[in-house]
Amino acid sequence: MASVTADTPVIPTRSAAARFGVPTTLAVALVLLLLLPALGLPPFFESFLYLLCLWISLATSWTIISGFTGYFSFGHGAFYGVGMYTTANLGASLPILVCLVIAAALAALLSLGMGAVIFRVRRLRGELFALLTLAMTIVVATIVLNTPIDGGPGKYLLGVQLPRIYDNSATTIYLLGACVAIGTLAITYFIQYGRLGRGLFAIADDEDVAEGLGVPSYRYKLIAFAISSAIAGVIGAVHAIFVSYVTVSETFSSTVALFVILMSVIGGMRHWLGPAIGAVFVTTINFVFVSGDSALAARIVIGLALILATLFLPEGVAGFVQKQVHKRRAAASSNTDTAPHALVPAAPVAAAPTATERPILLKGENISLAFRGVQALDGVNFDIRQGEILGLIGPNGSGKSTLINVMNGFYKPDTGRLLFEGHDLAQMPAHRIARLGLARTFQIPRPFPHLSVLDNVMVAAMFGGAAYPQETARRKALETLDFVGLANRAGAFPSELNLHQRKFLELARALVSDARLVMLDEVLAGLTPSEITSAIAMVRRIHGGERTIVFVEHNMRAVMELTDRLIILNQGKLIAEGDPRTVMDDPAVIRAYLGTSDAEG
Amino acid sequence: MSATLFGQSVLSGIFAGSLYALMGLGMSLSWRYLRVINIAHFGLVFLAAYMTYEFAGVRGYSALAVALLLIPLFFVLGVIQQVLILRFNVNEFSSLIVTYGLAIIAEAVIQLIWSADFVRYENRALHGNVEVGTLLLPVADILLVVIAVGLCVATWAAMRFTWLGKALRAGLDNPAIAAAFGVPNQRLLLLVSGFSAALASVAGVFVALLYTLAPSQILSWLGVVFAAVLLGGLGNPLGLLAAGMLIGVSEAITMAITAPSWAPVVPFTILILLLVLWPQRV
Amino acid sequence: MLKADAVCVGYGEALALSNISFDLGAGELVAIIGPNGAGKTTLVNALARLLPIRSGGILLDGENIARLTPQQLADRGVAIIPEGRRLFTSMTVEENLELGCYRAAARAHKREGLEQAYAMFPILGERRRQISGTLSGGQQQMVAFARALMARPRLLLIDEPSLGLAPVIIKQVFETIARIHATGVSILLIEQNATKALEAAQRAYVLDCGQMIASGTPDELRQRPEIGAAYLGHGH
């Protein structure tokens, strides 16, 4: 087997310099921005810079929930409005910094309440989120309008006390804005490259798979939403002082929601710097076309830009640049060998103890599940024993995949228990089951399409049973990719792999976190005969004589070669269980599964 | 609250609900069958409303003639929009953003032509009221209810019982196999988008008849109509009609009990309650 | 009746089918057999015009159909029973059957077609109002057959009818195919289960790795040792 370092030319990740460089650059930028007023800038320039900071903060914070996680919010204006009205009501009696903290807390609380409702819904969740965030803006506006928070005529901010830095309170507002903007960029940068960001990107690509690999999707979405909203609240609180008179119709107009989407779409939503690029572009256009008919022209330009960006630059400026970099890297590495890695034949495995001597790892008791009146699983009882390869077979529609989905937490059974080392998995969320050390593959591979092969495997390594820290996860992921023969494709995207390679990527994700129970759902389906031979060898090596495997398969040759024991499902019922040769001779199995008499299908 | 006030509130809720259903019908169909979340639908509604104001109000042509001309015109606009969406292979999610962009442009164009000021179209023929006991029923509103209910029921029946409706549903389930049995999927989709836009023009005529127009109001209908569309179930005209009525009546009663400015909260409270109590519904 | 001449079909850069040629006479039942991944379903989809053909010609009664749309092909009396049934799963059994006679020429025979279908598959008559996605696999296959027959086809393309069904049901499926064939419909049967397919067919072709590697009568093919070993499980 080739060594990892020699075989992995393309791994798009931040270089050490970048990791050190970005925070430093941001810090330097902040210092420069703070020193700028000392030069004695003209007021209009200072207010332009302030507006840049405002929109960078708003657009970047929006991206944390909507770009990274893929949940489009039309309600960013509500959180910003909460911030505005916090200062409008408390600014005269409390120090400004306390106001900012309260604004952040209120906005975060509002988002947590919203998220707790919406993120529980399973179908149409993206659309519902978009709609309900929009609706929330209207609801919050209505409440503010009808209560003393505003009361109708709007609020003047006359009594707000600002420290006078550089002898000018307008400059103080600019300084606050600069701090918030740079802080937002820094937070977003650390989120993107940290554990949270990896989880969020996985959620954006395929939430169910992410959950199945151990990403606590509900909690992560709430955290991302709360951070995003808190930032909007803070910058809203600052902006209230800037405008000095807040009204409901201005504050909760569609402008904020529209502009942050526009800026992020243009700049790129899957990169911390993207929205800032868009913010600079749009704010500048708006600053140039200021009044009357030219403001109207600006709206048309912005509408067109939104359409054109969606059609022609779907990943924004930042995404476009990233893609070009990836292409160049891939072209540079195409000289190296990218042929599929030849598989090493299986090492002979020592004779294992007989099946019945092994301790029970997982025990299923009376598992039943019905969909729309069809009994998919009907009182299934089974054991999975430590270190065995258990074959799970049965005709199409007999409930095999349903059983895998129940064990991995995607479906909750109507009745029954699944005991795994003292835990009942039956009602446990999928990410906790993954954390306990159960992993699965999908019959039709479901890689995260926007993550590289390496990042796909790293998500599993960081969130699965082993829960490795980032650097260990990277090493483990590379080792696992080498094991399945994909090391030289680590930097590729899943769309660049063929079916065979994507199946092996599935395997790598299931293996990387040292799962104690691996469920393989028809790994051989769709492979050519020679690929099947190598895949059988691969399963044997995965087993390594000790790892527990549940093997769902139609290919009887593979089943007979690999499995220690079989359980057979038919129409949701377990009809036989035991040693493969004995089971296949069981008349009930022959009748129902191979069918020589008059069983109904 | 007196019985008359209550009855009048329920009635005005039914009128409002009919307009929600009429506006939502095109959205609901295009969301379900075209996978296009069409925010530009509201732009079309207001474009039709302003054209009704311009031709029937300012220039004095017959409102009926204007409506009969707008319907085919908007059908064509809808077909063109869908041709472009198919041409650029816009997915459901991008359609939300692209049509949002279109709505902004529509708003700006309307403002360029008709200014940002409020305008009002007065139609004398539909000006009167019908009195039933102590209740007053404006003629224009009665017409609205008849048209909205008629269109929703007719659309439901067409989807359920006609070859066209069955072919559309089959195309949604499995386009390739539907094609193999002779279903012309693409043409049906264009038909749906044209029909949706034509519905927008009908809704627009009623907006002009019943409301004061301003460009800034275009997206103010978005939230409540979206709520009705989702509550009713995508592509379900009868559900939409019921949801529209439910929202309209609850709004009207809320307004009668509290202040009119509280009304916007109602549809979303209903929607959120539904989500919390009955999450598998949506 | 149907004649394919050097048909090539590809996805992206790879060729899934290269130089496929075969023919089928009027009223004939011809099988194309081959292992998983040989390109069988690709071939059916290309014939049904659901996939573009890169080169080569397909003649139906002398007319080249290689560039027709699926709808135009349906108008010429070709119907498909696709792999994995692929019903309109959210619609009722009867609506599925009605869609079968969507094309103008078949619509006139809707009532008659439904009667025949329910006579052939009584269970479907009992379940005509049931949503087809909730039927069992065997019943779904019946719907797929009945749907295709509603189109009153002259040529029927049947793709992997045995897939995922219990052997008892498979037996019934092949009996149904024989009955349909007896009414004079030409049938192209694509099947992985070579034993069953060879029992049913008058002639057969063997497809492997995207190429036709053999053809002949079932008896001739059974005799050829390399075919027997690879596809019929002889010598195991």
Summary, kept brief:
Helix content of chain B is 74%, strand content 3%. Chain B has helices spanning 3-34, 40-58, 63-87, 92-114, 139-161, 163-173, 175-180, 185-210, 222-232, 237-257, 265-277, and strands at 129-132, 135-138. Chain B has a two-stranded antiparallel ribbon with strand order 1-2.
Structure explained in plain terms:
The complex is a heterotrimer of chains A (601), B (282) and C (236). In chain A, the strands form three sheets. Chain A has a six-stranded mixed beta sheet, with helices on both faces. Chain A has helices at 4-7, 16-35, 43-69, 76-90, 96-118, 125-146, 169-193, 195-205, 207-212, 217-243, 248-251, 255-267, 274-288, 292-312, 316-333, 400-407, 430-435, 453-463, 470-484, 499-511, 529-543, 556-562, 580-585, 587-594, and strands at residues 155-156, 245-246, 360-371, 374-385, 389-393, 415-420, 423-424, 438-440, 517-521, 548-552, 565-570, 573-578. Chain A is α/β, with parallel strands linked by helices and 601 residues long. The two termini of chain A are 47 Å apart. Chain A is 57% helix and 11% strand. Chain B is mostly helical. Chain B starts with a helix and ends in a 5-residue tail after the last helix. By secondary structure, chain C is of the alpha/beta class. In chain C, strands 6-7-8-3-9-10 form a six-stranded mixed beta sheet, sandwiched between helices. In chain C, strands 2-1-4-5 form a four-stranded antiparallel beta sheet, covered by helices on one side. The interface between A and B is large, with 42 and 40 residues.
What is the topology?
The complex is a heterotrimer of chains A (601), B (282) and C (236).
Chain A: H1 4-7, H2 16-35, H3 43-69, H4 76-90, H5 96-118, H6 125-146, E1 155-156, H7 169-193, H8 195-205, H9 207-212, H10 217-243, E2 245-246, H11 248-251, H12 255-267, H13 274-288, H14 292-312, H15 316-333, E3 360-371, E4 374-385, E5 389-393, H16 400-407, E6 415-420, E7 423-424, H17 430-435, E8 438-440, H18 453-463, H19 470-484, H20 499-511, E9 517-521, H21 529-543, E10 548-552, H22 556-562, E11 565-570, E12 573-578, H23 580-585, H24 587-594
Helix pairs in contact in A: 2-7, 3-7, 3-8, 3-10, 3-12, 3-13, 4-5, 4-6, 4-10, 5-10, 7-8, 7-10, 8-10, 8-18, 12-13, 12-15, 18-19, 18-20, 19-20
Chain B: H1 3-34, H2 40-58, H3 63-87, H4 92-114, E1 129-132, E2 135-138, H5 139-161, H6 163-173, H7 175-180, H8 185-210, H9 222-232, H10 237-257, H11 265-277
Chain C: E1 2-11, E2 14-24, E3 29-33, H1 40-47, E4 55-60, E5 63-64, H2 70-75, E6 78-81, H3 93-100, H4 104-107, H5 110-120, H6 122-126, H7 137-150, E7 155-159, H8 167-182, E8 186-191, H9 194-200, E9 203-208, E10 211-216, H10 218-223, H11 225-231
Parallel strand pairs in C: 3-8, 3-9, 6-7, 7-8
Antiparallel strand pairs in C: 1-2, 1-4, 4-5, 9-10
